[in-house]
């Protein structure tokens, strides 16, 4: 009789497990990343190239809703990233620039968008796959001169994105 009860309990557990997994809320995605080369504003903060606040400790954390056009993802603690007069290092580049992303936690990727002075110039699909630890894209930034590039990593299964601004002088 005891064996029959154990078998019944085991079968009930096997049948209930899929229902429990579906019913439980999914966990928060801890995806984090930023452009490290050419050094984005947050990469410069992390390297102590320029004096910054809290962003120097977590350059990978500039996360906000998809669709923003902000270097700091509208996060008040990182607002200095949107200060164009802070003295950011400007990288001398050609018109074709390779941007290298570093991910401290990788998450499925919808796509990557690149904006030059507020104008979208490139999109690269992430195929809704988890990226490798490092990803690079080569972007034609258009005209020569000084530009602010906004690189955006759009996460595949959340409403969030990660933002990095890079200052360049294209020849």
TrEMBL record:
<dbReference type="InterPro" id="IPR004302">
    <property type="entry name" value="Cellulose/chitin-bd_N"/>
</dbReference>
<dbReference type="InterPro" id="IPR014756">
    <property type="entry name" value="Ig_E-set"/>
</dbReference>
<dbReference type="InterPro" id="IPR051024">
    <property type="entry name" value="GlcNAc_Chitin_IntDeg"/>
</dbReference>
<keyword id="KW-0732">Signal</keyword>
<dbReference type="Pfam" id="PF03067">
    <property type="entry name" value="LPMO_10"/>
</dbReference>
<protein>
    <submittedName>
        <fullName>Chitin-binding protein</fullName>
    </submittedName>
</protein>
<feature type="domain" description="Chitin-binding type-4">
    <location>
        <begin position="32"/>
        <end position="168"/>
    </location>
</feature>
């Amino acid at each position: 009789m005891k064996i029959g009860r154990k078998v019944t309990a085991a079968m009930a557990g096997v049948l209930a497990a899929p229902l429990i997994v579906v019913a439980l809320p999914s966990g928060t995605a801890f995806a984090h990343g930023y452009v490290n080369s050419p050094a984005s504003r947050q990469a410069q903060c992390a390297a102590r190239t320029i004096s910054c606040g809290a962003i120097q400790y977590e350059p990978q954390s500039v996360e906000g809703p998809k669709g923003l056009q902000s270097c700091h993802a509208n996060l008040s603690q990182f607002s200095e990233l949107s200060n164009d007069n802070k003295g950011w290092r400007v990288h001398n580049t050609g018109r074709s620039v390779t941007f290298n992303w570093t991910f401290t936690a990788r998450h499925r990727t919808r796509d990557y968008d690149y904006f030059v002075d507020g104008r979208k110039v490139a999109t690269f699909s992430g195929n809704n796959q988890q990226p490798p630890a490092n990803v690079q894209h080569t972007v034609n930034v258009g005209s020569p001169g000084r530009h602010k590039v906004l690189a955006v990593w759009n996460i595949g299964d959340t409403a969030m994105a990660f933002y990095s601004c890079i200052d360049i002088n294209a020849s």
